[in-house]
Amino acid sequence: MSHDKISFEKLNAYVDSELDPIEAAEVARAIADDIHLADQVSALSRLRSAVTEGFEAPFIKMPAPVNAGRRQAAIAVCFAFLLFVAGSVFLSGFDRPLGGKWLLSAWELHQGWSIDQPADGRAGLLPARFTEAMPGVYVPDLSASRLSLVHVKVRKFFDSRKALLVGYRGSRGCKVSLVAFARPQDLGETLRFIREGSNEAYAWRAGSLAYVLMSEGMDSNRFRLLAESVRQTSGQHLPFEKRTVMALRKSRDKSAPCFA
Question: What is the rounded distance in angstroms from the CA atom of residue 14 to the CA atom of residue 251?
Fold first, then answer.
């Protein structure tokens, strides 16, 4: 897909999770290659979260319009939208936390286990006590991306909460962690991208739970596709569709080994 053919409408549909997995993967690859597209998606995601959660509305940079008439219409729509968001913020208050503690705790959990340690004897299975500790949790099968589940623990999290830590190990040095915790207060249903040095993460909310998927050294395009695939299935606890499985396998085979 040419980056020039990605319209603002398609980016907006991507943020709203209205694209099918193939289109979403194509847009994700384009975003990874184009910082301007990434900035637009980030702004759209923050704006959507602002409406959903009642946060301060971010500035959003609109793509260049075709003509002056469309430009004026786009400006008018954006202005009205921001006024609506500003009103929502005023009515809902400003006492909602913007995160930080949960993110720090998630990174600590990710860094606290090693792919060199022996795999749990229960690898590939999720004991009942873990689902009881985190009701409604979704733990995906990432074998399509050549990642094996090797580590499952309930860990202490921020504010005396508990989180389920799920660790995956790849055959080429990849380390991926999925952290799930309850009562997310500053996450929307769209992916939020986070970078920490060479580490990358995506966070989102599905129902009453928050999920943070983290990697070390994985190809950014591959990791974005992986995160989007997990996010799309986390709400309904469904396995990946066949075309998603094929896309994950192809992405893994075309990417370089991890350097975690």
Answer: 19
Number of helices (H), then strands (E), in the chain: 8, 6
Q: Structure tokens of 128?
A: 């009942």
> Residue range 15-38: average pLDDT?
75
| Torsion 17-248-23-5 (CA) sign | positive
| Sheet containing 199-206, strands listed edge to edge, beginning at the edge strand earlier in sequence | 147-156, 162-170, 175-182, 209-216, 199-206, 192-196
**In the Cβ-directed half-sphere of 14, how many Cα atoms lie within 13 Å?**
29
Q: What is the pLDDT of residues 193-203, one digit of tens each?
A: 998 777 899 99
How many residues are listed for the chain in this entry?
Answer: 260
Reference 167, options 154, 178, 155, 180; nearest CA is 178
The CATH code of domain 101-254 reads 3.30.200.100
> pTM here?
0.62
Top pLDDT among 237 and 47 is at 237
- Residue boundaries of the structural domains of the chain: 3-92, 101-254
Q: Are 219 and 192 in contact (CB under 8 A)?
A: no
Residues 214, 202: Cα–Cα separation, whole Å: 7
Distance between CA atoms of 24 and 38, rounded to whole angstroms? 14
